[in-house]
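Human: If only I could read C-alpha cells as easily as an amino acid sequence. Underneath my words sits a plain record pairing an amino acid chain with its C-alpha cells. Take your time, and here it is.
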Amino acid sequence: MRIGRNIEVRPLGGGTGCFLMIAFSILASVILTVVVNLLFR
C-alpha cells in the first residue's frame, strides 16, 4: 500500500503479520471505544 510519493507500507511477515495487524487494529478500536465511553460518562 502506497502513501504519498515515496512512503510504502507493507504487512510485516507475510500472512501472519497481516493477521496480527488486523487483530491489533480491532483490539485498538475496542480499547479506544471503551476509553472514550469512560471519558464522556
In short: The chain has one helix and two strands. Residues 14-41 form one domain. Residues 15 and 26 are 17 Å apart (CA to CA).
